[in-house]
Amino acid sequence: MSLLSLEHVTQRFGGLTAVDRVSLEVGAGEIVGVIGPNGSGKTTLFATVSGFLEPQEGEIRFEGRSIRGLKPSRISALGIARTFQVVQPFAGLTVFDNVVAGALRGGRETLDDARRVAGEVIAQCGLAPERGKFAGALPIVGRKRLEIARALATRPRLILLDEVMAGLRPAEVDQAIELVRAIRASGVTVVVVEHLMRAVMALAERLYVLHHGALIAQGDAREVIQRPEVVEAYFGERATHA
Amino acid sequence: MAGGFLSDWRNWQLAVAIGFVVIAGAGGAFAGSDYFLQIMVLAAIYAAIGTAWTIAGGLSGLLLLGYISFFGLGAYVDGLLFTKFGVNPWLCLLIAFAGAGLLAWLIALVTLRFGLSEDYFAMFTVALSQVLKYAMLNWDFAGRATGVYLTVVKDDFATLSFVDRKPYLYIALALLVIVILVNYAVQRSRFGYLLAAVRENSQAAEALGIDSGKVKTKAIVLSGALAGMVGAFYCQFATFIDPRQVFSLATNFEMLLGPVLGGRLSIIGPVFGAAFLKPLQDLLRGWLGGEADALYLVLYGAVLTLGILLLPKGVASYVEAWHRRRYGNP
User: Interface pTM (ipTM) of the complex?
Assistant: First the structure.
């Protein structure tokens, strides 16, 4: 049984179909990549899975049960964590307190437990030197890591990472790749939305390719990116924009 | 060790605020004039209201602009239950706590359930306070515009009635200490973290499993209930309440001035804000004259707006920065 499954999920905004009958499966322990050109619906898909948007059509199942229409806080409690493409730190709190807020799991953990978990997650994400700083004062790499740390602190079964490599320097990207691998090794299933092909190819075994909201290809990462329709949709568009 | 305790900003504030209350109480013991005591009691009431307000208006980030509803409701709960039914005023304090909490819960239910955005929430709360005022102005049982009178003939602790003004000061300061301790406990608790998360970014909080609606509801209920309790005490102290007084918008904004200028996320802000501003307000009111109520409102609106724009975290943020340097925190 797959951990997460989407069946014909559709998300429309007025006349625009941002996500068009998307079906996908994520098995426990996988790292799955979702790629596609700008505006292809990747972030909208994450927002739909995490409950920030309710789909007009389709079904979303997590561990076999429907999560469609549940509130984001409820979906988080079930074990799905997400990061935001545009980072959303609690700017007025320290890095440590940001992660404690996540580790409280909506108030179901005691403060002592949350503080212990936060300390561990901060160390795992390489944020220990920053733990006393205010989140608003972090550089972009720190903010991206904080997004991951806060999400991880909720102890999810599945984590949705939205463009966590964007804006990082090459050496920082390598560290982030190692971090994502370590997250999977700790037993958390990972779905990455990522523009940076180097990072996607280093991480994902399987890829789903979105174009204008619809899936145009899926399968083994190395095989998928060589298909003509993918090259045209994804790289073709990038080439013309470049 | 004391240095370790005080190196925490919240602990430091607690110590300073409680110390100030003790000094005020000791000072009040030597106060000769009733006028002076009157101002001290009102300042303590304003400080308690301001400190209670920050739980919702500061810590949870709700724009709870019309706050006097809870105070006024509490005052009427005490006034009516005591004079009409002979309910013990101490018990009235608890009933006012529960009643104002219930009103707050209803407000949260209506505004958060139907997803009123921030500015509409603020306007709704202001409008509601005036609806309550006009309801009371038209309610025969509550004495309409003439309000409720309490007759006090002797000092009696059991019925919270005193001819002497000093006992009121001690009780007002005790209530202030209770509100300060509640605020401090909230800030240090797990609930305090949830409040901070919702305040800083409610979308990110939701993504972390925090039900922002529930958290905001709890904040406004606690905040409203405390104001109701203080309102009930005010009725005992004033011995006379009417709708134009306990649901006054001018008083509403006066009460919020302390926490807003002092620091909405702090404990010392509302306490010292009220201690400084309340006497100043009385001076101003005397100077502008009783006819200048409208001018008074305009002035307060302007100061409140400027305060929010220029000092978003209040004067206390500068003290906090000093505290951080003093104790070498990052």
Answer: 0.91
Q: How far is CA A146 from CA A110, B9, B178, B199, B293, in A?
A: 21, 24, 37, 18, 51
Taking CA atoms, what residue in B is nearest to A92?
B200
Place of tokens 């990747």: A42
What pLDDT does B298 receive? 77
Among partner residues B189, B197, B330, which is closest to A101 by beta-carbon distance? Answer: B197
Contact, B46 vs B38, CB < 8 A?
no
**Rounded mean pLDDT of A208-235?**
88
Q: Which structural domain range is residue B52 located in?
A: 2-248
Q: Give the tens place of pLDDT for each residue, B268-304.
A: 999 999 999 888 877 777 777 666 667 777 777 787 7
| Torsion angle of the four alpha carbons B250, B20, B15, B70, in this order, in degrees rounded to the nearest 10 | -30
The model's pTM is 0.92
Domain count, chain B: 1
Please check whether residue A100 touches B, CB under 8 A. yes
Domains of chain A: 1-79+160-242 (3.40.50.300), 89-155 (no CATH)
* Contacting A residues, span 134-193, partner chain B, CB-CB under 8 Å: 150-151, 153-154
CATH assignment at residue B24 = 1.10.3470
pLDDT value of position B176: 98
Contact A102 B208 (CB under 8 A): yes
CA distance B200 to chain A (A): 5
Cβ atoms of B88 and B158 closer than 8 Å: yes
Residues of B in Cβ contact (< 8 Å) with A106: 194, 208-211
Domain assignment present for residue B196? The answer is yes
**Does the residue B305 lie in any domain?**
no
Q: What residues of B are in contact with residue A73 (Cβ under 8 Å)? A: 205-206, 208-212
Q: Does B190 touch chain A (CB under 8 A)?
A: yes
pLDDT at B55 over 90: yes
Question: Smallest CA–CA separation between B317 and chain A, in Å?
Answer: 12
3-state secondary structure B35-79: HHHHHHHHHHHHHHHHHHHHHHHHHCCCCCCCCHHHHHHHHHHHH
pLDDT value, residue B328: 78
Mean pLDDT score across all residues of chain A? 92
Asked if the structure places residue B209 within a domain, the reply is yes
B25 φ/ψ angles, rounded to the nearest 5 degrees: -65, -45
Give the pLDDT mean for A140-156. Answer: 95
Q: What is the pLDDT of residues A88-147, one digit of tens each?
A: 999 999 999 999 999 999 999 999 999 999 999 999 999 999 999 999 999 999 999 999
Residue B203 lies in a domain: yes
E strand map for A64-133: 65-66, 80-82
Intra-chain end-to-end CA distance of chain B, in Å = 21
Model confidence at A240: pLDDT above 50 = no
R_g (Cα) of chain A, nearest Å: 18
Sheet holding A16-26, edge to edge: A16-26, A4-13, A57-62, A65-66
